[in-house]
Amino acid sequence: MKKSKLARLIAAICCFAMLLTACSSNQTPAETGGDGSTTADSEKKVLTYAIGAETTDLSTLYMNNSLYCTSKLVYENLVDFDNGEIVPGLAESWEYNDDQTELTFHLRQGVTFHNGEPFNAEAVKTNLEHKQSNPSFYSLKGITDIQEIEVVDEYTITLHYDHPFYAYLQDFCWPDVNPMSAPEYIIPGDFQTISGVAGTGPYIYDEYVAGEYTRFVRNEDYWGETPYWDEIIVKYIPDSTSRLQALQTGEIDMIYGGTLLTYEEYDQALAMDGIDGQMAEKDTRVQVITTNATSPYLSDIRVRQAIAYAIDKEEMSVAISNGYEPPADIPATRDTPYADVELETTYDYDPDMANQLLDEAGWLMNESTGIREKDGEPLSLLLTLETGSTSVSMPTAEVIKSQLAEVGIDITIYGTEQMQWYADYLEGKFDLTLWHCQYAFASPHCWFTPMDSMVPQTPSLPGIEGSDEFLATIKELTNMSDDQEVRDTYTYLFNYDVGNVLDIPLTYQKDMLVYNTDKIAGYTFTGTPCFFDILSLEPAE
Q1: What's the whole-model pTM score?
Q2: Arithmetic mean of pLDDT over the chain
Q3: Sorted alphabetically, which keywords does the UniProt record give (predicted)?
C-alpha cells in the first residue's frame, strides 16, 4: 500500500508538471546570434543562462525569485554571509561601540557605481534612508531601528540605535533587499520600481530586449577580482521544459537555482550528453506550513496537531525531490545560528493519532464523501501559495492535499502572485499557507521578531496557552546581545512555535545548477546558495 500510494503521488506531480509545459518563443533578433551576441562579438567569452522573469524589476527591494541568479552580477552588499560567518563586502571592516548601540562601517575606497556616481558614505546613507522608509522592512531591525545615520567622513558611516541587538549586522547580508544601488536611480517613496539598474558589481546592465534577453557586460573598473566572462546573456524562458530543451541544444549554457529547476528536471539534465550538475551541500531554506489559528477550523490545537501527524515528510521528500530534500524539524536550516536546539515535542508521521485527534475534536468522517464533518460543516481548508515559486511550492501543495485527504481533511489549493499572496496572508485569508523560511543569516531572528505585530499570528496567539509569555519574549529578544541569553531564548521560541503547531516544518530545500561541460567546469556554492555568484563559477578552459 505504501508503494502504490507513493507511486500515485509521484504520478500526480508529473502530470501537473506536464500541464505547466508550454512552447517558448524566445527568439533573438535576426541580426543577432542565438545568445544575443552579434557576429562581431564572436571572439568574446559569453556565458548564456536562463531566467524565468523579465529583468524590468531588478530592484534591490522587490526582486522576483527567479532573478536571484542575476542580482549579484550587478549589486553588492556592505557585508556578506559565507560559511556561517559575516565577511567584508563594500565595507572593509566594521565595529560596535561598547554598549553595541553604534555600528560603524569603514567603506572601500575608489569604488564607483556603474553610472559613474562615487560609492561613499553619502551614497550609503541615501540607500539606507530609502530602505528604512519601506514599511515592508519591519523584520529587519538593523534598518528599521536606526535612529540616526551619521556620515563621519567620506568613507566612514555610523548607525546609531537606541538599544543593542545581536543581529543588527546580519540584516545587512540580504542580497536581494539590502545591496547598494546608484542613488540617481532611487525613487523616493517608491519601493517597487527603479529608474535604472546600476550597482557596483562585476557586470553592468547593458541591453534589455523585452521578452527575449538581457545583456550584462563586464565592469572593467570593478574593484574586485576580474571576471572571466566578457558578457553574460540571460534569456527569458518562462517555461521549464523549454529551459531544458535550450540547455540540451546549446542555446543556453546553464540553469541555476531551485526556482528554475525541479529535482526531476535536475535528474533529466544529468542524463543528457555533455551536461553535468551540482547540488549545494548546505540547505537553502525550509518549506513550512503556517497555520492560521484564527480560522474556526484551526483554533482547536487538536486539529493543528492532526494535520502535523498526517504529513509524511519522508514520503513528501521522495515525491517532490526524489529524496534530495531531507525532512525538516524546525523552521530554520540547521546551519542557522542558534538553530541547534532540541525539541520537547515532535509530530512524527502517525495517521492513527491524526484520526484519533480529529475524532476527539468532533470532526467525524462522512463515509460517503471521505471528508470529515462537524455540525454539518465539512472540514475543508484553504491552502495558499505564491505562484512565483510554483516549481517548488505546487508539488508540495499537491502532496499535502493527498496526504490530508487520507485522514478526511479536504484541501483547496489557491496560488497567486507574490504581492497578492502576501497581502492575503496579512489579512488572514487562508487556513494553511506555504512559506519558504529565511536564509541562514536571516534566521531565526527574522522568523520570530515580526510575530508580535503581524496578522494573523498576533490575533490568534492570545487564544493559545502561554502566548503572552511568547510574545513578551520576542519583544525582549530584540534588545538582547548576550550570546547565552540569545541561545536560551531561541530554544524556548522554537519549542513554543513547533509544539503549538503554529508552523509545521516540511523539508530542507536544496539549490542546484546544471551546465554545459564545454563551457563550465564546476561551481562553488556560497553560504547563501540560491544567490548565484559569477566569481564562483569555474570556466572549462
Answers
A1: 0.86
A2: 89
A3: Signal, Transport
